[in-house]
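Need tokens for this chain, all 338 residues.
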Amino acid sequence: MKLLFHYGDEVLTLPAATASFIGTASPLALSLLFRLAAEPGLREATPALLAERMAVSVDAVEEALAFWQKTGLLTDEPDEQPDTSGGKPKKQMPSAMSHPRAVSDVSVKTADNGARVTVVSGEGMPNYTGKEIEALMQGDPALALLIDECQKIAGKLFNVREINQVLGLADYLRLDSDYIILLFHYCCKRGKNSVPYIVKTAYALVNTEEITTYAQLEVYVASLEKVNTLEQTVRRLAGLGSRTLTAKEKKILSSWASFSPSEELVSLAYETTVNNTGKFIFSYMDKVLTAWHEAGCRTAQDVTAAAERRTREASGQNKSFDLDEFFKAAVKKSYGES
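Here are the structure tokens for all 338 residues:
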């Protein structure tokens, strides 16, 4: 079967990227887009006039317009400003708030309060030319300083595309400079100095983790640093090499980061695990460390003192004690040992 379009002199033209949003766009949003494509004169109409033509509310039209503007398929052209010098009207310079953006992946979710929330992902970025970037830098020194600092952190000069992406973090995601700089420091410290990688990380933080302020990012990065330090310690002790950790193991490390055990205590927990089981078992080591933490042990001396107290309480005498027995008791309940 071969399908053919039959049409007259007029042709409805839409960007090919429209197909990416058919599944997330509302029926009204699709109807509005088709109408604007078919009737160019309506592109200068007010939301009120569009609402009248489509027999819907103004709020519904504005919501549909906002959807397409967020995807980057639809944008407002800057209004012409009168030239008070008596010359011809001139257009405003493109700004970080009004410039057309590249296409993004957009999904619509319903919040707990029932409101519809549009979540943007992908690389929806402003698309400035080299001359526009130069004009923006001259008009806003803070942007120039941001780009310069990010280049220093990444250890390279950015091309036009990369500068667009960094500007997009400030423009599209509305992140402040301190947030962007901290994110660059964190990613580059881990050997990830690719601007696209850092941008994707920013989108994940904002859309998935809902980390949108510098204070939130600072706490998040500190937590990740703790997890990374703990991971490196365990890898060294257990000889894990470059083996990818399982989801369960990563969860265990995150739980340890919440109470920040010292390297000394982690090493002692590893030795205890191997002594008691004959091998390294991540979950067993987790039970040991967690039990010590709940018992108030912060150092190896705390563990020894706790074991001694337990022995005295059990025997009612000040006699020698067996650390291994204490360690085993600490995890007995979790493993169902008798």
